[in-house]
Amino acid sequence: MKQAEEPPRESSGWTIQDSAELYGLANWGGGYFGVSDEGTVEVYPDGNLSRKIDLLEVVEGLEARDLYPPVMIRFSGILAHRMAQLRRAFDEAIAEGGYAGKYTCVYPIKVNQQRYICEEIRDLGRTLGFGLEAGSKPELLAGLALTEGLSEMPFICNGFKDAEFIETAILAAKMGRNIIPVVEQTQELGLLIRSARNHNVTPRFGIRAKLASGGIGRWADSVGFRGKFGLSVSQILSSVDWLRDEGLLDGLRLLHCHIGSQIFDIRTFKYAVSELAHIYVELVKLGAPLGMLDLGGGLGVDYDGSGSATQSSMNYTLEQYATDVVYRVKSICDDAGVPHPDLITESGRALVAHSGVLVFQVLGSRVFPETPDGDLVSRALAEVPEDEVPQPLLDMVDAYQRLEGGDPIETYHDAEHALNEAMSLFNLGYMSITARAAIEELYWAIGNRVARDHREELPEELYDLPDRLGDIYFSNFSLFQSLIDAWGIDQVFPIIPIHRLDERPTRRAILADVTCDSDGRVDRFPGNGEPQNTLALHALRNGGGNGGPAGEHEPYYLAVFLTGAYQETLGDLHNLFGDTHAVHVVMTEDGDWHLDEVVEGDTVREVLQFVQFDPDAMRRSLRREIEAALAAKSLTLQEAVSMRRFLDQGIDGYTYLE
Fold it and tell me: E strands within 337-386?
């Protein structure tokens, strides 16, 4: 990982433009996010900078409604704008290239199956000519329900299928639905033929081709000859012969492929589209009617804003993607004298990622001291006679005193050696805990001073010293529930404070969630093409002088952006932290915002039931124990009431800290 840029420590002269540049909003934000004059994050749902929503205002408005972070905030306007952008990009490419076919996008329900999102996409899709895609029987049923009364809306069915799945799709087609099941395996073709015979129809269907073109990135192994999806070319040829023999070749209307997910290099699309188009024209020459070419998904999202061919970015624009697809298919079809097919893409991530923002509150921080506790060091030196003071403690004190005039790198190495010796002595029982604590304080102070004042002089082996001594900000969310890709596949997400952006951040930190898991931490953040280990943040302000108890701090909110795709559905119940609150925010014509939908997060009762606990039985059992403790006088009446109140309120409360 690249070395993180150290935020300057003084706060004067810092502007909101400096914060926007530091966090890269213009690079990854897609034109939807900026910084207000007050130093808060602004959201531009339709890309118009004059129409904006203050994210902090939304969070405070939610709290006034007793909806506290963590909360997933979905911006319907961003979703609508992304869909319109995709439509426009292909329409312009088709017009400029003289392409004779049409274009449609089908939304893969798997990307985010939340009902309200699917309904929004369906409603917006009606005017844009978009449709839906299902990859399982539950998604098939969801899609059929979503498209009730919309018989013309395209509905592609991918994934592994049994007889029930195929029969349902064929019967839906007989009902008038524009539904196309895609054959993934040769045995599915046999099921389709049998169902067609049973119902005396020639259904419209597609075949997915297994491409030789290699994939790229995390999902590279999902394509190629050993890929999971599709039929090989020889299997496709056999299928065409089989269909011709059965008199059902006229039903083969679509050729499909799987290129991969989050394709970050445009060349991968070029190779795959070229191969698929060549297969298409050869099948047409063999008599397959076809007419539709489904290029699958893969359209990327620039998570880190670097615009590069790296895992969390992409080296092309939406317009370049559309132009390349149209141009390559047109050229190959024209050379073969084959009519241009209608084009379909299954772009899900690129549609919904920007519309989801996760907001949570920082609970506290763990900060390595920059100056040692003088009283602690004095106690450690005075607790034994002078000639019995442990040598590592003397060496560490000497190293700290040499910081001003000595070689800082040599001084740090001396401190590291003293720390190692101290740990050995302590583990053997030859050093007190007070001496150990003093040595640790001195070591951290030396490291922080060296990292801060001599950053440009650090040798390669100490290049990551500023990150190693970074803070830990404890945050009220579950990585495994809300940012599962950050844990599972090391996905980088942009994370920034939603306020105080008119102040210079003076700390660097990683984020730790509230789960009891050492992996529940975020320590990869967007850099310029290479992730950083720590994130620039503001020091927490003590709340004692602001109406809050001493020791507490003012609220400090962070937001994770581009979380609309996959995170909500793939998240799990680690430590029984459930779904967060989710709200849909809509901008009105006059520039105000309102909540269009509120989905309250899981309660403790609900997550307990997910794992087969009976909350009411638990309540009765614990109430009996409380009464027994009260009778035995191990609890006072006030304590018993307090315990019972926690029990009653806790079972029906939010799973996160409140």
Answer: 342-345, 356-366
Q: What SS3 class is residue 564?
A: coil
Quote the pLDDT of residue 569: 85
Domain assignment present for 70: no
Q: pLDDT tens across 141-193, in order?
A: 999 999 999 999 999 999 999 999 999 999 999 999 999 999 999 999 999 99
> Full-prediction pTM beyond 0.85?
yes
Cβ-proximal residues to 448 (8 Å cutoff; 6+ apart), any chain: 368, 369, 370, 469
Q: How confident is the model at residue 453 (pLDDT cuts 50, 70, 90)?
A: confident
Q: Residue 451: exposed, middle, or buried by beta-carbon count in 10 A (0-12, 13-18, 19+)? A: buried
Region of 178 on the Ramachandran plot (φ > 0 left; ψ -120 to 50 alpha; else beta): beta
- Residue 289 in any domain: the answer is yes
Share of the chain above pLDDT 70, in %: 94
**141 and 190 part of one domain:** yes
Question: Do 326 and 456 lie in a common domain?
Answer: no
Sign of the dihedral defined by the CA atoms of residues 410, 416, 417, 422, in that order: positive
In terms of Cβ atoms closer than 10 Å to its own Cβ (0-12, 13-18, 19+), residue 410 is: exposed
pLDDT tens column, 219-239:
555 556 666 789 999 999 999
| Residue 58 domain flag | no
- Is residue 456 assigned to a domain? yes
Domain range for 146: 76-355
Dihedral sign computed on CA atoms, order 282, 288, 293, 296: negative
**How many domains does the chain divide into?**
3
Q: Do 344 and 396 share a structural domain?
A: no
Q: CA-CA distances (angstroms) from residue 540 to 215, 372, 497, 642?
A: 45, 20, 12, 31
Residue for token pair 């300057």: 8
Q: Mean pLDDT over residues 544-572, rounded? A: 78
Look up the CATH number of the domain holding residue 400.
Answer: 1.20.58.930
Q: How is residue 610 written in tokens?
A: 């997910």
